[in-house]
Specification:
187 residues, alpha+beta, 3-stranded antiparallel beta sheet, Cation_antiport_E, transmembrane helix, cell membrane
Length: 187
């Protein structure tokens, strides 16, 4: 694998270096640490930062480029709709289990519109958290998610699920639009 090159102001290039300890990664890992402990104390906070720094040094990540903004109203709408989807799906899965009838399942391919790996991860995570579906494969090269979905009786139900997944992606794109840096623009 060839090294990543950084172009200097004078036009010469040199191998790019990146910091192993990146503040966004340390912050995220510290939040995970606090969530695992289920409490926030000064000792846990300091311990979480130390563990996060150690993890970043032992397992260095490529540079994180978070090139999106947050739209608060769209984020509230996203979270509200997500809660409604979880409750609705929980009721549907419960009714499927209690009816004790033959259930037909399907693996549904969803071709995402966004080419962002972060967006693909967010869509996959949120779809997996809704009862009744789980991501079984994610193809980064084509930005396609394959989801196992329960109680899919016909092609119409498959298409309905696919449209719901794409609608979730659109809500995420509205809540976290890309910055205008020449990268993917949110519609």
């Amino acid at each position: 694998m060839s090294p990543v090159l950084h172009t200097r102001r004078d036009g010469t290039t040199r191998p790019a270096r990146h910091r192993a300890v990146q503040p966004p990664a340390v912050a995220g890992l510290t939040l995970v640490w606090l969530a695992l402990w289920g409490d926030v104390t000064p000792l846990l906070l300091v311990g979480g930062v130390l563990v996060a720094v150690m993890v970043c040094l032992v397992f260095p990540l490529p540079p994180l480029h978070l090139s999106f903004r947050v739209r608060p109203l769209a984020l509230v709408a996203l979270v509200g709709r997500f809660i409604v989807d979880v409750v609705r799906a929980s009721v549907e899965v419960s009714s499927v289990v209690l009816r004790r009838r033959q259930v037909s399942n399907a693996v549904v391919a969803v071709d995402l519109e966004s080419s962002s790996d972060l967006m693909m991860t967010l869509v996959a995570s949120m779809l997996s958290l809704v009862p009744g579906s789980v991501v079984v494969e994610a193809r980064r090269s084509t930005h396609t998610l394959f989801l196992h979905v329960i109680d899919v009786r016909d092609e119409e139900a498959v298409e309905r699920f696919r449209q719901e997944a794409l609608a979730l992606e659109q809500r995420l794109l509205r809540a976290f639009p890309a910055r205008a840096t020449g990268q993917e623009e949110a519609s």
